[in-house]
TrEMBL record:
GO MF annotation list: methyltransferase activity
PANTHER family in alphabetical order: BLR1400 PROTEIN, METHYLTRANSFERASE
Name assigned to this protein: Methionine biosynthesis protein MetW
Superkingdom per UniProt: Bacteria
Organism of provenance: Luminiphilus syltensis NOR5-1B
Pfam families in UniProt: MetW
Amino acid sequence: MLMRLDLTQIKRWIPKGSRVLDLGCGDGEFLAELEHELEVSGTGLEIDLHNLSEAVAKGLSVVQQDMDAGLPNFPDNSFDTVVMAHALQVLHRPHRVLEHMVRIGGEAIVTFPNFGHWRCRLYLGLRGRMPVSKVMPYSWYDTPNIHFCTVKDFEHLCDSLDIELIAKDTVGGGSSQILARLWPNAFAVTAIYRLRRRGG
């Protein structure tokens, strides 16, 4: 099975043998790959019992916890990298989770679908309805996405939280990858950020 492109980029930013916390780790497939390929010391965090069982069955260390309830049980700088892939938009308090991520880890990596993508804008403009696509396959009434965020929104939030953007990358989809790098707010399907606490 092909790995999602944002997960491929995340792997490039994680040092071999480091301590990694994967927030919303799902069934643990990505965390298991990090442990196998990069020899990381990995911990996952997952709220769904079915996913949790699958991750534990893979031999992973996984904690059942709701990110929105806060992450106070993790001490400052207890991990080298804290990862949250495609979960930002489903959180009730994404700003609080981001603050905890850069507190808990030396660095944080966040990926999310860019709701400012031109196809979303066009779909909404022409059809007058919330977009449904391969990346966002849900209808407005059953979507887990509760905070729709663009690249510019995210960067503004990080600046207001005193979070430094170390690096960023995008997934543009097909031939628009170059455009996604040049104009991410309009052409990035997925945004990928590497972060740390400013001055940290």
